[in-house]
Amino acid sequence: MERLQLVCGGIAQNSVDDLTPDVLGWAGLVYEQQLGEEKYTFIEEVKDPKSVTLLIKGPNAHTITQITDAVRDGLRSVYNMIVDKSVVPGGGAFQVACAEHLKSHDFIKTVKGKSKFGVEAFADALLIIPKTLAANAGHDVQDA
């Protein structure tokens, strides 16, 4: 009942005698559907939900656990970003930025002699991480 209040915006009452329009919640669509052997009640088209339910299904308990962990981690990351008001880029963002800086004209002109080749080789080595991540995600590494 508590979550139903959060979804629909109503206020729980102990008796129907206390019902007034200002304590009623609202939902555009409520229906029951059977998924597998379980019956679920879906409440949709609500105005300002303060709670949601994510239904995670899979072929076995291991897969469901992995999906649940991934969703929980993603939601925790979004929550931390909102609370901290900051984001730490990942996915090779630092390596790309560092390689771009090392290859920039302003930085290269400060490096003397054969050291330029070492700096360029190091910058290229940094790009291995984001290229590997791109390949693992199914992207064309040549475009990365």
In short:
With 144 residues, this protein is mainly alpha-helical. The protein is 47% helix and 10% strand.
Describe this structure in words.
- GO terms for molecular function: ATP binding; ATP-dependent protein folding chaperone.
- InterPro entries: Chaperone_TCP-1, Cpn60/GroEL/TCP-1, GroEL-like_apical_dom_sf, GROEL-like_equatorial_sf, TCP-1-like_intermed_sf.
- Keywords: ATP-binding, Chaperone, Nucleotide-binding.
- This is T-complex protein 1 subunit zeta.
- Belongs to the TCP-1 chaperonin family.
- This protein is mainly alpha-helical and 144 residues long.
- The protein folds into three domains: 53 residues, no CATH class; 31 residues; 45 residues.
- Helix content is 47%, strand content 10%.
- It contains six helices and two strands.
- A two-stranded antiparallel ribbon has the order 1-2.
- Helix 3 runs antiparallel to helix 5.
- The longest helix is centred in the middle third of the chain and has 24 residues.
- The protein is elongated, with a radius of gyration of 26 Å.
- The two termini are 50 Å apart.
- The model has no long low-confidence stretch (mean pLDDT 91).
